[in-house]
């Protein structure tokens, strides 16, 4: 993302869809977004660290990058994460469907191992690892642009792939424990999840993509960034999560997660991320995917 870049005017309309009961616990969010960018231009923004996401595009395609991969504007089905890094992207006028998968959904609806795709972004129609979801774009784009047809196509696609998972209850326990206020370190997380430390480490990597320590660091970072976005013009020191020792620690982690300073992030326009976070908070009670309850 170029420093000092001014995005062209744009209009974004977003609609969120409640998953059906038979797929409860699998999705953090399913949404449709219609983006119109003036002057045939492209806007730039950055996504927060998140769980696995699959996005289908009808219109222009994204240019985006993570430490382990990029898409160059020629992919209509883009898969990311789970991630502990911000995803830089640019996008022009398009209609987009987004499917956020909880760790439970990743395990029950795909053949992906979270640790194998952590911090990656790819064209899911070309990636052998993503073969289990490669047909989603054809399934959705066979519809005319119609919310009911497209959303049902998404849910039916995944409904046909629903499968039992051996560690389902442990996945749910870990996810709930990640959101518990008591989970300040890996030991607390293990206690809250009712698991041994080694068992938690193995399941965390397999189904969540990262070690317990990394997951907890991501949680406090996303909590802080969400508070900052929703309460602007609040100062970073006021938004900073209580689990941080001091501002210096927060700034170091900000650079690690987002590859920029807090001041650089605050100075950037966020035509996509701000709209999504505000609308999510209004409708779902949570501004970011990583903060969503799994139940």
TrEMBL record:
Database matches in SMART domains: HTH_ARAC
Keyword Transit peptide: no
UniProt xrefs under Gene3D superfamilies: Homeodomain-like
GO function term, MF aspect, one: DNA-binding transcription factor activity
Keywords, in A-Z order: DNA-binding, Transcription, Transcription regulation
Domain of life of the organism encoding this protein: Bacteria
Residue ranges of domain HTH araC/xylS-type in the record: 169-268
Protein name, per record: AraC-type DNA-binding protein
Source species of the chain: Altererythrobacter xiamenensis
């Amino acid at each position: 993302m170029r420093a000092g870049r001014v995005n062209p005017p744009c209009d974004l309309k977003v609609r969120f869809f409640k998953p059906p009961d038979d797929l409860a616990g699998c999705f953090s969010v399913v949404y449709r977004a219609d983006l119109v960018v003036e002057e045939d231009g492209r806007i730039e923004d950055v996504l927060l660290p998140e769980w696995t996401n699959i996005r289908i595009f009808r219109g222009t395609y994204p240019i985006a990058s993570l430490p382990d991969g990029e898409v160059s504007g020629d992919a209509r089905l883009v898969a990311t994460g789970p991630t502990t890094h911000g995803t830089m992207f640019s996008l022009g006028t398009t209609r987009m469907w987004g499917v956020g998968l909880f760790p439970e959904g990743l395990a029950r609806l795909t053949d992906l191992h979270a640790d194998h795709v952590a911090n990656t972004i790819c064209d899911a129609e070309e990636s052998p690892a993503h073969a289990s979801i490669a047909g989603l774009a054809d399934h959705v784009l066979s519809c005319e642009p119609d919310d009911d047809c497209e959303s049902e196509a998404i849910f039916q696609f995944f409904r046909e792939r629903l499968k039992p998972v051996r560690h389902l209850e442990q996945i749910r326990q870990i996810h709930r424990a990640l959101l518990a206020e008591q989970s300040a370190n890996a030991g607390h997380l293990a206690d809250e999840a009712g698991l041994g430390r080694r068992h938690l480490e193995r399941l965390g990597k397999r189904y969540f993509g990262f070690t317990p320590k990394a997951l907890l660091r991501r949680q406090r970072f996303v909590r802080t960034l969400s508070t900052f976005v929703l309460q602007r013009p609040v100062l970073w020191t006021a938004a900073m999560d209580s689990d941080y020792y001091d501002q210096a620690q927060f700034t170091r982690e900000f650079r690690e997660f987002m590859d920029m300073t807090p001041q650089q992030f605050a100075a950037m326009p966020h035509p996509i991320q701000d709209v999504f976070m505000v609308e999510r908070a209004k409708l779902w009670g949570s501004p970011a995917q990583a903060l969503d309850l799994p139940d």
